[in-house]
Amino acid sequence: MSKPLILICNDDGITAPGIRALIQAVRDLGDCVVVAPDRPQSGMGHAITIGHPLRVQAQHGLFGDLPAYQTSGTPVDCVKLAVDQILHRKPDLLLSGINHGSNASINVIYSGTMSAAVEGGIEGIPSVGFSLCDYALEADFGLSADVARTVAKAVLERGLMPGTLLNVNIPKIDPSQFRGLRVSRQAAAKWKENFEERHDPHGKAYYWMTGEFELLEQAEDTDEWALRNGYASVVPVQFDLTAHRALLSLQGWGMQDWNIENGI
Amino acid sequence: MSKPLILICNDDGITAPGIRALIQAVRDLGDCVVVAPDRPQSGMGHAITIGHPLRVQAQHGLFGDLPAYQTSGTPVDCVKLAVDQILHRKPDLLLSGINHGSNASINVIYSGTMSAAVEGGIEGIPSVGFSLCDYALEADFGLSADVARTVAKAVLERGLMPGTLLNVNIPKIDPSQFRGLRVSRQAAAKWKENFEERHDPHGKAYYWMTGEFELLEQAEDTDEWALRNGYASVVPVQFDLTAHRALLSLQGWGMQDWNIENGI
Predict the structure, then answer these.
(1) pLDDT value of position B255
(2) Domain ranges of chain A
(3) Given this structure, which CATH class describes domain A5-187+219-259?
(4) Residues 6 or more apart whose Cβ sits within 8 Å of residue A183
(5) Please, how many CA atoms are within 13 Å of residue B7, restricted to the half-sphere of its CB?
(6) Is residue B261 classed exposed, middle or buried when 0-12, 13-18 and 19+ CB atoms within 10 A define those classes?
(7) Alpha helix (H) ranges present in A74-217?
(8) How many CA atoms lie within 13 A of A152 on its CB side?
(9) CA A233/CA A219 separation, integer angstroms
């Protein structure tokens, strides 16, 4: 039986400690290929590169004998380049991360790490994004690596429901306090922005985005609850963004009968 | 009664014909403020700017007497800057577009136009993104403008279900053939990438992303069906990405009992 082909990517860039930890954790589970951005791309969401061409550079020395490539593109570009231009086939598994910082709750939508996994899902690849709730470059990825290996093995064995992927977040916690994995839903939350205004040496204003995370619910079936209570959260994610629960109410607006020319 | 405050943004940049058409269509419905990127930002998805500071420049002459600002940020940055730094309050309505090109089906996830509307939704603002299925700069926005005005009036009057926003796409069609609005769900589809390899004057390879849209279903309740049959599609969109239908199946994996240290 041939070994599964595993595509590994991230958004913190190919030199980030988190992707190295992920590779170490899973490299014997299949034939691993690394395709990652050549620089940090946090917060890139599902951006793709349309107006510029992309570069791809082999970096085969970086991870022992693993084929590795850095690209000038976004995390989503990396997945597209990997499938169409580097692997010339769909990998059997896509693993993204390990991200330096939480991608739980609403963060999933801003995250390049998770967008790479979403793109894998769109391509029909069983895909998982991993994130450690610790932004430090020197964060300890030990527990996260163990979680990543366990989840990767399970997904290789069982597959995922079509149209879905996994968002796995690992708490910043002493491993002795770790309570295990917990299937969860995305907690309702938002960032409350607070731009910091500064002035450049020429007197012109510029703004740094800062913000505070606002958790909008405390329910025990959410990823935020899991992480705050010693669990790693496992959220199934989908890319059908239709708010199905709103369809009926909208149909009640009678739009089909509106006269567009004169408004309502 | 004070007039509603309407925030207008887009992803094609503040000088795009599409945003001008949108402004003309809705400017008498409230107090409009324009905050848009200073250059095209198509395909930016839900990207935000973390590693660089942002610039904001008043452009009050662009649209008659309307306050207008261009920013160096992404469409999502524009919404955040508008709420926190420019308006200092939540607008009553956010309108994004009119995009030059379709944001129906899977395009919703790559679209800066729609991500601005999604960000509005996250902030609790009734939000709508409008897109015309015509990529031409000189596209005719007449019908789209009429649709935008009609939908904007309805949303001002009725509001939207919390946690949802609208993705409105208008077909490229002679207005005499237009059949009206149709509430729809996001059609299953993907882009099949095909990178075009070229070489720079120094002999080094670079890649242009090209692709073909692959529609994966023909159902009549989808946005693609509506657009291909003379309707403008209206899809309610949500930013809870949890694949709720997959929760039960994942719970059946027994993850809570896995021994992480030794894998499964």
Answers:
(1) 92
(2) 5-187+219-259
(3) alpha beta
(4) A234, A235, A236, B247, B250, B251, B253, B255, B256
(5) 35
(6) exposed
(7) 75-81, 112-122, 142-158
(8) 31
(9) 14
Contact B44 A40 (CB under 8 A): no
Q: Secondary structure of chain B: what % helix, strand, coil (to 5)?
A: 30, 30, 40
Q: Which residues contact A102 (CB under 8 A, 6 or more apart)?
A: A131, A133, A169, A227
Parallel/antiparallel/unpaired status of strands A93-100 and A5-9: parallel
Please give the class, per CATH, of domain B5-187+218-262: alpha beta
Give Cβ neighbours of residue A30 (< 8 Å, ≥ 6 apart). Answer: A3, A4, A5, A6, A92, A93, A156
**Segment 126-185 of chain A within 8 Å of chain B by CB:** 143, 146-147, 149-150, 153-154, 157-158, 160-161, 163-164, 167, 178, 180-183, 185
B50 vs A118, A183, A209: nearest CB: A209
> How far is the C-alpha of A261 from the C-alpha of B189, rounded, in Å?
32
Q: Is A228 helix (H, G, I), strand (E, B) or coil?
A: helix
pLDDT tens by residue, B19-68 = 999 999 999 999 999 999 999 988 888 899 988 999 999 999 999 999 99
Q: What does the pLDDT look like over B114-142, one tens digit per residue?
A: 999 999 999 999 999 999 999 988 899 99
Using the Cβ of A242 and the Cβ atoms of chain B, whether some distance falls under 8 Å is answered with: yes
Amino acid at A238: Q
> Which among B8, B58, B60 has a CA at the least distance from the CA of B29?
B8
List all residues 6 or more positions away from B164 whose beta carbon is below 8 Å from its beta carbon.
Answer: A243, A246, B121, B236, B237, B238
- Structure confidence at residue B261 as a pLDDT band (50, 70, 90): low
* Neighboring chain B residues of A164 at a CB cutoff of 8 Å: 243, 246
Residue pair A115/A44 in contact by the 8 Å Cβ criterion: yes
Q: Per the structure block, which two tokens stand in for A205? A: 């204003």
Three-class DSSP category at A31? strand
Give mean pLDDT, residues B234-238.
98
| Residue B128 bridge partners (DSSP) | B95, B166
Q: Which residues of chain A neighbour B186 with C-beta distances below 8 Å?
A: 240-242
